[in-house]
Amino acid sequence: MADQQVSKLGIASVTLKATLAASARLWTSPFKGEKGAHTYFKDVMFAMVRTQLGNLTLAQDRHLNASTTEQYLKSAKDLGFAPESTTLPSGIQGHWIGNKNAKKVILYYHGGGYVVGASAGHFSYLVQIKDLLVAQGVDVGILIPAYDLAPEKTYPNQLRQGVDALRYLIEIEGRSPEDITLGGDSAGGNLTLGVLSHLTHPHPDIPALNLPTRLHAALLISPWCSFNVHTKAYAENAERDMLDDRVLSRWSGAFLGSDSPFAGDFYNEPVLAPAWWWEGTAGVVEEVLFWGGSYEVLIDGIEETAKRFQQGYGGKGGKVAVVISPKAAHVEPVVENILGYKKDSGTGSRIVIGDWLKAKL
After folding, report:
1. Which of 99, 100, 295, 311 is the most buried (most CB within 10 A)?
2. Domain final residue pick, 48, 64, 80
3. Which residues pair with 322 in a beta bridge?
4. Which domain range does residue 6 map to?
5. Is the CB of residue 325 less than 8 Å from the CB of residue 303?
6. Would you say 184 and 110 are in contact if contact means Cβ atoms under 8 Å apart?
7. DSSP readout, 325-355?
8. Which of these, 264, 254, 224, lies nearest to 111 by C-alpha position?
9. Each residue of 107-144: pLDDT tens digit?
10. Integer Cα distance of 183 and 332 in angstroms
11. Do 97 and 202 sit in the same domain of this protein?
């Protein structure tokens, strides 16, 4: 998205609004009680981020955020690891963290509403996951596809590239699905569910991918399951999360290429899929974790999707765990890194996900 489309004055105006929102929250936060975020610091920062994200345009979103590849190279320098990238068959870059020749691989789809690239918080969190597993004696490589972003590229382009990244690992690198774990947060969790849907119900515009064995596992961190911004959680968690209906409507419209409330389908809006849709998934992945935070605005869609997934996938013998961490916000482990937390901020989210990964890998 070209820079000339971006109003620098507009960005300055949004920045001022966000700063004023944070300043006001410094004084009002102590009086919010349970209506606010988990900690005073988060409450103030979330008020600022909500205001900024809610008032930006798509062009400003992109202008203010580095691409996934740009951020990967910067994070490699900041975090002290050697960058290694692969050009995937679809033409996009796939970026490695850890040992790319390791037997165990996590194929991780980053979040960002399908509009912005992976953040520094994503890469620092993935390095933490890699270090956690290596400390347990598990050599692992994490592949992050730099899939194309909206609005230039709309659905199902990202799904095609997500499937092709998995196809690359299996058909070109010759890896066994049993050694591959899928994962993703927010929009990346949406994409992970879309890939699982495609494996059992091939999308009509994307070549089928037939697996010789089941995938090892799938990790879903705050998956973006529903584009409906009128659920109960949007009201209850309006001041507890960093996202609101304005930014999510903007991003979903850009991803779908439509503002119609009927633009979603079973692949891109998983909450729409009935339980039977997920029955075949028991034949393509061994175990699945749904993680969500009780303070996130997306939690209603996550819980409804997880319920149907349990009925369909679990009903056919698939192992599924659903964990809702109290007082945790959207993609809490990633946001903790963005906000500068060195350890879990008190919700236990990072610990729960880390323990699951250690047990499964």
Report:
1. 295
2. 64
3. 290
4. 1-64
5. no
6. yes
7. ETT--TTHHHHHHHTT-SS--SS-HHHHHHH
8. 224
9. 999 999 999 999 999 999 999 999 999 999 999 999 99
10. 15
11. yes
